[in-house]
Amino acid sequence: MTNLEAFMSADLDGARPDGLEPLIDAIGQRVGPALRSVVLYGSTRRSNNPGDGLVDLMAVVSSYRAVHGIGASLLNTLLPPNVYYLETGSDQARLRCKYIIVSEKTLRARTRGGLDGYFWARFTQPCRRVWAADQAAELLLAECRAQAAAHFARSAARLGSGVMTDQQFWVRALRATYG
Fold this sequence. Notes:
Elements: H1 3-12, H2 21-31, E1 35-41, E2 54-61, H3 64-68, H4 70-78, E3 82-88, E4 95-103, H5 104-110, H6 118-122, E5 127-132, H7 135-157, H8 166-178
Parallel strand pairs: 2-4
Antiparallel strand pairs: 1-2, 1-5, 3-4
Helix pairs in contact: 1-7, 5-7, 7-8
């Protein structure tokens, strides 16, 4: 594991809200044994109460075919990610999320770079690993975050020159990403 991968692995293990287990369990029931890991991203990552909003989750799976069968797996391969909505819990403790399904192969390829910044730009931003099947799944997430961050930084460096603070660099890079 490289230093950057070790840093990303530690970052993925950072603070996360309690109470996500019903959502993780429900996703696991939907995708079955193909589920390799679940990553929390987006604004609810900073909340201590996931019931306060719509939780954003990424379900990393071993393959699209293992989840969708032959036909839908081809479409998911061509146009990832598929996005799903899920609600679970009682009326008093309702949890809602949208989650994407992405295969390990697609995540590895798309975080390396390319014109489509959906994965490499998103996976550079703060996120948390909230479940992993095993150490190999944990290592894959760290590897993908490291390569996404490296590509993001290289791409942002090409936006212009000059001396700037770390904050100015990241503000410029994120503006370009969302622009």
